[in-house]
Amino acid sequence: MPFALADDGTRLYYELSGAGEPLLLIAGRGIDHRLWNIVRPGLARHFLVIDYDQRGTGQSDKPAQPPYSTRGLANDAISVLDHLKISRAHIYGASMGGAVAQWMAIEHPERVGGLVLAGTWAGGTHRVAPSPEARAIMDGRDPKRVMDTLFAHRWTRTRIYRSVWPPVDDPVPSYVDRLHARASEEHDSWDRLPFIRAPTLVLQGGDDPVVPSGNARLLVERTPGAELYVIPRGRHAFFLEFRTRVNRRVRRFLRDHSFSR
Predict the structure, then answer these.
(1) Is the pTM of this model over 0.85?
(2) Exposed e or buried b per residue across 139-170, where buried means at least 16 C-beta atoms within 10 angstroms of its C-beta
(3) How remote is the C-alpha of 197 from its chain's centroid?
(4) What is the tens place of the pLDDT at every residue in 171-183?
(5) Across-strand partners of 230?
(6) Region label for 225, one of left (φ > 0), alpha (ψ between -120 and 50) or beta (otherwise)
(7) Which of 1, 14, 28, 177 is deepest in the core (most CB within 10 A)?
(8) Which CATH class is domain 3-256?
(9) Chain CA centroid to CA 26, Å
């Protein structure tokens, strides 16, 4: 199996597909690389897609120490690129993966081409919190209620649950879920966002109850030159449900900001 080693020796499983400029995909809290199963093909026709299991998920190691942080997870992502001898890559992070991607762009600017942030937040006192109901549903992890929160259309919920979202039936250990939750809750990049130099595209579901759209507006206002693209009826998994439209926008953005010209 292909593994990269993090700075502390944690093994990080990764997969490669496609060809072209490198594009690293970063999944969210408690979800492994399979999150991208139905998104990946539309991107791999244009990019060398790298997706991996963050520590604690999938086939990567699941250490209990030290405490996880979005900053530390960003260093893990850099380790994957180092292992592959990739000096620069586009980064596409969703939810907590978008928080990780922010730190990559802040602390490793030379490694980041285009930056795509989907359904994510700046954190700290500037985070627009989900409703208590949405938080309770996501923390409860009841599959049906989670699907209803993530997707706008019933047919989409059913199909994705049954065929392309295996992590829902294969949850991370409870201690890892707590570590990921802490990393998510403690994320705070607000003060450093103005230092991001990577071209940035912020994607948002207009009806997202988990990461309300106010978060996207704050990111765009705080990040120099950032662009905003909203899927009006999209919920938290809008980038999966409306993947044809979202992938088209992501491809165009990254093509406009190619770093190999």
Answers:
(1) yes
(2) eeeeeeebbebbbbeeebbeebbeeebebbee
(3) 19
(4) 789 999 999 999 9
(5) 204
(6) left
(7) 28
(8) alpha beta
(9) 4
> How many Cα atoms are found within 13 Å in the side-chain-facing hemisphere of 137?
16
- Which residue reads 């897609």 in tokens? 49
Q: Where are the domains of the chain?
A: 3-256
Rounded to an integer, what distance in angstroms lies between the CA atom of residue 110 and that of residue 128? 30
Distance CA 26, CA 37 (A): 12
Model confidence at 137: pLDDT above 90: no
